[in-house]
Design goal:
about 60 residues, alpha+beta, two-stranded antiparallel ribbon, flat
Length: about 60
């Protein structure tokens, strides 16, 4: 995954697929933000790994 794409992950309608909508990561980042989570991305020539880090010690935004 190129650095130009990495810096824009989560941008609505950004896609690298011919028939993609570009909404998948936007939805993921929105859900993570609501739960005060972080999405971390590690990429190398061998592939890309996404990790979601949740803070289990904080209250949910709703309560």
């Amino acid at each position: 995954m190129g650095n130009d794409i990495l810096g824009r992950l989560g941008t609505p309608f950004l896609t690298t697929k011919e028939h993609g909508t570009g909404l998948g990561f936007d939805v993921c980042y929105t859900i993570a933000a609501r739960h005060r989570a972080q999405i971390e991305v590690e990429t190398s020539p061998g592939g890309t790994t996404f990790s979601v880090r949740l803070n289990l010690n904080c209250q949910s935004p709703q309560g």
